[in-house]
Predict the 3D structure of the following.
Amino acid sequence: ADLDETLVTERALAAGVRVYPLGRYRTDRPHHRPPAFVLGYGTLTPAEMDASVRLFAEAAASSRTAGRPRG
């Protein structure tokens, strides 16, 4: 996978969305599987959930391109 869990987590938090990376709970090396996250929605309305998922997707997308050279 080309996503860094730490970077995605930081960017999501900067966007106002707290997610919890699961890489530290894996028994195999994290780079052998794609990143995984837990998103909590217990106190959110459906509209807030939709917005949170959109913001998380944007954070993940920006993290995916962050390390790539431009050009």
Summary: Helices lie at 5-14, 46-66.
